[in-house]
Amino acid sequence: MNKIDINAPIAQIIDEHPELLEVFVEMGFKPLENKTMYKTLGYKVTLKQGAKLLGKSIDDIIQNLKWNGYEVKGD
Questions:
Q1: What span, in angstroms and rounded, lies between the C-alpha atoms of 33 and 21?
Q2: pLDDT at 28
Q3: In degrees to the nearest 10, what's the CA dihedral of 14, 38, 31, 58?
Q4: pTM for the whole thing?
Q5: Closest Cα partner for 30 from 48, 53, 9?
Q6: Are strands 70-73 and 2-5 parallel, antiparallel or unpaired?
Q7: For the chain, domain boundaries
Q8: Model confidence pLDDT, tens digit, residues 36-50
Q9: pLDDT tens digits, 47-73
Q10: Contact yes or no for 10/32 (Cβ under 8 A)
Q11: What is the residue range of the signal peptide feature (predicted)?
Q12: Cα(4)–Cα(16) distance, rounded to whole angstroms?
């Protein structure tokens, strides 16, 4: 099973699981479509921080990742 750490930088997660870029964009992480944003903030902001910045529920994101077959760790 693929593992995701919500405390890892978003770009690192996508580098390890490229298929998640589309999933994250669909969940509201639209700035990731911009290559500059991806290459700068993507490596500084964790998935958990990004959810908070965008006003998204981390619990909803975790559930979505689980539905897509990922094991999620971090608190």
A1: 8
A2: 92
A3: 40
A4: 0.90
A5: 53
A6: parallel
A7: 3-73
A8: 999 999 999 999 999
A9: 999 999 999 999 999 999 999 999 999
A10: yes
A11: none
A12: 9
